[in-house]
Amino acid sequence: MPAQIVKKATIYQRPKNAMQSGKARMSDWVLEFPQNEKRHADPLMGWSGSGDTQVQVQLNFPNLAAAQDYAARKGIKADVVASPAHKLKIQAYSDNFR
User: Are 39 and 52 in contact (CB under 8 A)?
Assistant: First the structure.
């Protein structure tokens, strides 16, 4: 009987896009698998790649509980990365000219 392969993943909440002021998809939680195989350069095209297709999988969930339930059902050992607290710098426009 072969040994059971233990899959590992990371669950995190999307950070705010630094290039835009919108907050779309910030409430989504993402389950992502780490890279298990070293990347290598393709000799013909020069692209980097590997045989590990699990890296391409990125699952979105509406909340943390749904992501953890999915990982538990599928036998995936998932680490939860907490998102940092949002700090607001309340400032008036006139403060730019002090």
Answer: no
| Residue pLDDT, tens place only, 45-65 | 888 888 778 888 899 999 999
- Give the span between the Cα atoms of 61 and 67, in whole angstroms: 6
Q: Are 32 and 9 in contact (CB under 8 A)?
A: yes
Query: How many residues are recorded in the chain?
Result: 98
Report all structural domains of the chain as residue ranges with CATH numbers, in order of start: 1-38+53-83 (3.30.160.190)
* Residue 31 bridge partners (DSSP): 11, 59
pLDDT band at 90 (very low <50, low <70, confident <90, very high): confident
Q: How far apart are CA 13 and CA 77, in angstroms?
A: 17
